[in-house]
Amino acid sequence: MDCKLDKVLLQDLLEGTIDPVEKLFVEEHLKTCRECRQELTELKLLFWDLFDKSNYEVSLPSELDQIKDLILANAAEQPAKSTAEIICDIQRQNIRASGMFLDYVPGLKTGNMLVKESVKAAPSAMLRISKGLVKATKFFLAK
Amino acid sequence: MDVSDAAILKIYKKNKHQGLELLYDRYKKYVYTIAYNYTHNKEDALDLTQEVFISILKSMDNFKEEFSILPWVKRITVNKCLNFARDKKEAVSLNQTVAAGSEIQDLIGAPNNTESTTLYQDTRQSLAKAIKELPPQERMALLLRHMKGMKYEEIARIMNVPLGTVKTLLHRARKTVKVSMVKDGIWEG
Ligand SMILES: [Zn+2]
């Protein structure tokens, strides 16, 4: 069990990236080397699993829709900001700075309904803060 | 509904909101899937997805219609993932005193615990565990090659490294993953 063949060549053989001369050499070597045949078998199994798409499938979480709202709200062109918006921006920054994950809550521009909607799914600590935020917006917009 | 890149750019010129919405819907799965397989953590993957799209929308106005969007989405996603790894590492070292051992232990794994390795019977789990522990660049190269089926040249371009480096990263990554999966007894009949 002390074959000196660089096992990297076996990976290249499977990938088809091996130099043609080296390929001939490796193929000859495999005929007589049990260790390399074993290694090649393992690599074939590895490649099978690595290329198996089902091993990487993920379910898309609902938060992706909230991120979409946030991004769209961010992108919406903002002319002159109203006082209410500026105050809310400051409030948002404060909340963010205090480590709350308000990132997934859509921006205020999309309206309070969206804030309320997204808050339903949010953890209770955030719920409290966001309710305050909704109230604050209502207050300033009423003015 | 699947709308082409060209159509998205045309719509974006007329209606930014609608264009961005179409772009997001077209590429969210692509971005999130890479981010999730790279981080194996939902919150991190969501953070990354958000970062990628914010970066896209920032440079959207400079985008030329004759280019297609996908290569650009790929590059931003890969860059954000690789930078994210760097940020994360710094955060870990900063919080080391706070996270009383256990979290850091989870992050780096427990190499001396031979009993826990036998728990990974499932191929998918074993593979995910092995990939998760690879160094960032090796992990990304492996995912681009095997999950996304990219050619070596494309990986080199997207990761901005020489072709030879891609080969080396893949060789090392596969070797590590194979050792880990053999240890988990995944292919034993
Ligand atoms: Zn040999």
Automatic annotation (TrEMBL), chain A:
Keywords: Metal-binding, Zinc, Zinc-finger. Belongs to the zinc-associated anti-sigma factor (ZAS) superfamily. Anti-sigma-W factor family. It comes from Acididesulfobacillus acetoxydans. GO terms for molecular function: zinc ion binding. Gene3D superfamilies: Anti-sigma factor, zinc-finger domain. Residues 9-37 form the Putative zinc-finger domain. InterPro entries: Anti_sigma_zinc_sf (IPR041916), Znf_put (IPR027383). This is Anti-sigma-W factor RsiW. Pfam families: zf-HC2. The keyword Protease does not apply.
UniProtKB/TrEMBL annotation, chain B:
Residues 23-89 form the RNA polymerase sigma-70 region domain. Coiled coil: none annotated. Residues 125-176 form the RNA polymerase sigma factor 70 region 4 type domain. Signal peptide: none annotated. SUPFAM superfamilies: Sigma2 domain of RNA polymerase sigma factors, Sigma3 and sigma4 domains of RNA polymerase sigma factors. One of its GO terms (molecular function) is sigma factor activity. It comes from the Bacteria. Keywords: Sigma factor, Transcription, Transcription regulation. It holds the Pfam family Sigma70_r2. GO terms for biological process: DNA-templated transcription initiation. Belongs to the sigma-70 factor family. ECF subfamily. This is RNA polymerase sigma factor. It comes from Acididesulfobacillus acetoxydans.
